Amino acid sequence: MTNTKADIKAVSKTARGNILAKLKAEVSGADYDKLPEEVPFNYPEFSREENLAQFISELEKNHAQVIKTTKANMASVISEQLKALNITKLLYGENDEHSEVIAALDSKIDLQTYDFSIDNNKERLFNECPAALSSSRCSIAATGSIVLWPDENEPRSLSLVPPVHFVIVDANELYADFTSLIKAQQWQDKLPTNVVLVSGPSKTADIQQTLAYGAHGPKALIVLLINI
Amino acid sequence: MKHIIEEESKYAASAKAFRANVARDLGNEELRSNFRGAMDYLMDKRKSAFSSEDELEVLREQCKLIKQRCLAKLPHLLEQLEGNLERNGIKVHWAETITEANEIIAQLIADKKGSSVVKGKSMVSEETALNDYLEERNVECLESDMGEYIVQLAKEHPSHIIMPAIHQNKKQVAKLFADNIEGFEYSTDVDTLIQQGREVLRNKFCQADVGISGVNFAVAETGTLCLVENEGNGRMCTTIPDLHIAITGIEKVVEHLSDVPPLLSLLTRSATGQAISTYFNMISSARKPGEKDGPQEVHLVLLDNGRSQAFADEELKQTLQCIRCGACMNHCPVYTRIGGHAYGTVYPGPIGKMVSPHMLGLEATTNLPTASTLCGACGEVCPVKIPIPKILLRLRQESVKPKSQQPEVMKGQGAGRSSVEALIWKVWAQVHKSPTMYALSMWGLTRFRFLMPKKLGGWTSVRTAPKPAATTLHQRVKAKQEKAKQSQQERG
Ligand code: SF4
Predict the structure, then answer these.
(1) Which residues constitute the domain of residue B448?
(2) Ligand 1 within 6 A of B228 CB?
(3) Residue B320 lies in a domain
(4) Is ligand 1 within 6 A of the CB of residue B323?
(5) Does the CB atom of residue B130 touch ligand 1 within 6 A?
């Protein structure tokens, strides 16, 4: 029953022509200079402290654990947390930025580097990696969101598959809201393969409006907040 | 055209049965209490998400204008989107009908020799009944959103666009799991239920070779597909399998990346009262050389399915502003009482009543626009200010206007027209145009009111028949005025 490849190309080509022709017939002659002005809401300016407080409170409302720490202390914080969770393994990306932290972790922790392609390693990723550590690019105060910017060293699934996600967040990279962040960093010029805004551990309220955490992604999001 | 005529959506039949569906579901007390509870919860959530009326109003106006601008430029933005996506290595396909969309997706899967599909939440794929289509071709298609998973296990359809399993309570879900998942011990603890679902579905994510998702916003300027979700299943479907196919309606395209933040903010707050969803996922490319994960191939299917028909009419075009937040159904007194399945369509509630006639034709959906009290709640909460009650009135008109009247605005125009009703209104209009005729008819009505029948079909099944009064309003006002005049004269 399924059509041949050539067929779907043809189907799509015809559909494209028809759809665009119909739409274009309706907008022909439209004057786009005369569109009404779109006025945004003027949000008040907040101080760094206020933004930080807002960021932390939003994250905590969404069941993320926020730990204020320093770069020097981070290794011991992670080690303690893992111990408390009874986890002995940690997956991390090959990122020079926190190589010192990795080196200083409790020696009992079995360190796993994400230096493999996912293609033949899905079972391992899903079943043998209970926790992961990743960095973040920046964050957003208004909604308590952390911006993940995955790359070759820190793949997309690093922050998704392991049930516990440690993420390093630099308080100096905090923006008031999403709009100002996009503008300041001119995102429209350079979006990578994938960007994710994370605002808590995975959750669902699909059964009788009752919140449950750890639906598919990480059950715990542990935010290591530095440079406060 | 051939697909439209030959292969009607399976939802046409269930939409036609609207009245019977309503009678069935109004009598189901458990269902009604499930909906009541859920709607109260969602209305509360939304209310607490907007602390300032000012902010809400400014944002609504801004987002309405954003969507109107994007629609005004729609064909150009679609071309720009296509160009940028293809430049990023994402293939774009176009489909006029649901069958075309399904054919394309089935073929993409077959090309990759895919056999196991995981799906993130996508209402557009519900619209095309993709699961049925793939299953007929021996491709297993598993829903991975918790709500959708429950609905699929129960062999049902979503009853709400944001919370698909809202019609079920935890006891019903517990029973469903116990009956369908091997080794699951009956429990009504929601955490236990979710962990059970998680276990089953994580296995599937690990094994599936294809991931299918919807799209909340497609950004033309950057060629980016944005997905809003809380569970992480959307990220799983778009990250783990080798092939990712996204499907969306042509109206989801926005011009600039900077259009996204205000729309996103209104979407999550209107839908569930969240400042933002747990994940906001922005996909701009397939896996690049050197990257260790992500799908090797990403495809986008752009579906029309009646949208261009709405686009061609200035008033009905506003339907396409919709960002699918679900607020209109959460606040709808009709939806709350009859539930989501009674509509018989993929999209229930006010948005469903507006959009389904374009997808299924007015023949199958004549009853839907009439299933509204026109109380206006939907229009008041709609984040993009769609005048929903006005559009419903317009659809009522389209469904009773003469079939031959040109231009034909909609498929199925005049499907609800009855010659008796048309005649009654014609006479009514004549009578009201002429003072003599009007006076005569009033004279008759007040004299012969005893002739009014006791039974008036559907109207009197739950009401008593109306009876004309013995005197007309004009007569009574006149009498009153005369009485006043008299007493004034007496006093004077
Ligand atoms: S019509 Fe408005 S309120 Fe209803 S789902 Fe669409 S955007 Fe939301």
Answers:
(1) 419-491
(2) no
(3) no
(4) yes
(5) no
Interface test with B, best of A216, A219, A221, A223 (most B CBs within 10 A): A216
CB–CB contacts below 8 A, A to B: 281
Domain ranges of chain A: 48-226
Is the domain defined by A48-226 classed in CATH 3.40.50.10420?
A: yes
Among B62, B74, B235, the residue with its CB nearest the CB of A23 is B74
For residue A3, is pLDDT > 80? no
How many CB atoms neighbour CB B185 within 10 A?
10
Tokens of residue B283, six digits = 């996909």
Token couple for A225: 């907040």
The CA B141 to ligand 1 mean position distance, Å, reads: 28
Among B479, B449, B453, CA closest to B465: B453
Count of structural domains, chain B? 1
Please report the pLDDT score of residue B404 as a whole number.
86
Nearest CA to ligand 1 atom 8: B325
**B170: its two tokens:** 């935890």
Bridge partners of residue A112, in order along the sequence: A91
- Are the C-beta atoms of residues A100 and A72 closer than 8 Å to each other? no
Low-confidence ranges of chain B (pLDDT < 70): 1-7
Which residue of B90, B279, B288 is the best one to mutate when testing the A interface, meaning the one whose CB has the most A CBs within 10 A?
Answer: B279
Give the B window 67-126 contacts with A, CB below 8 Å. Answer: 68-69, 72-76, 78-79, 93-96, 100, 103-104, 106-108, 110-111
Q: Do A193 and B285 touch (CB under 8 A)?
A: yes
Q: What pLDDT is attached to residue B3?
A: 40
Asked whether residue B480 is domain-assigned, the answer is yes
Contacts with B38 (C-beta within 8 Å, 6 or more apart), sequence order: A208, A209, B160, B163, B166
Tell me what percent of chain A is helix, strand and coil, each rounded to the nearest 5. 40, 20, 40
For residues B155 and B242, the answer to whether their CB atoms sit within 8 Å is no
HSE-CB for B272 with a 13 A CA cutoff: 22
H-helix or E-strand containing B234? helix B233-239
Structure-block tokens of residue B429: 């209009």
Q: What are phi and psi of B227, to 5 degrees?
A: -125, 135
Kindly identify which residue of chain B lies nearest to residue A1, measuring between CA atoms.
Answer: B137
- Supply the ipTM of this predicted assembly: 0.96
Q: Of A137, A139, A132, which Cα lies nearest the Cα of A158? A: A132
A:71-110 residues touching chain B, CB 8 A cutoff: none
Q: What's the pLDDT band for A195 if we cut at 50, 70, 90?
A: very high
Residues in chain A: 228
Predicted TM-score (pTM) of the model is 0.94
Residue-wise DSSP of A24-76: HHHHTT--GGGPPP-PPP-PPP--HHHHHHHHHHHHHHTT-EEEE--TTTHHH
Find out whether A134 and A166 touch, Cβ atoms under 8 Å: yes
Answer whether residue B350 is part of any domain. no
What is the torsion angle, in degrees rounded to the nearest 10, for the CA atoms of residue B81, residue B113, residue B291 and residue A120? 160
Q: What is the pLDDT of residue A5?
A: 58
Which chain A residues have a beta carbon less than 8 Å from that of B206? 122-123, 125-127
Burial tier of B489 (Cβ tally within 10 Å: 0-12, 13-18, 19+): exposed
Q: What is the mean pLDDT of residues A86-99?
A: 90
Answer yes or no: is the C-beta of B165 below 6 A from any ligand 1 atom.
no
Q: Name the residue of chain A whose CA is nearest to B77's CA.
A: A20
Cα B461 to ligand 1 centroid, rounded to whole Å: 33
Task: Assess whether the C-beta atom of B355 lies below 6 angstroms from ligand 1.
Answer: no
**Residue B479 domain-assigned?**
yes
Alpha carbon distances (Å) from A42 to B58, B60, B282: 9, 14, 26
Residues of A in contact with B58 (CB under 8 A): 39-41
The answer to whether the CB of B352 is under 6 A from ligand 1 is no
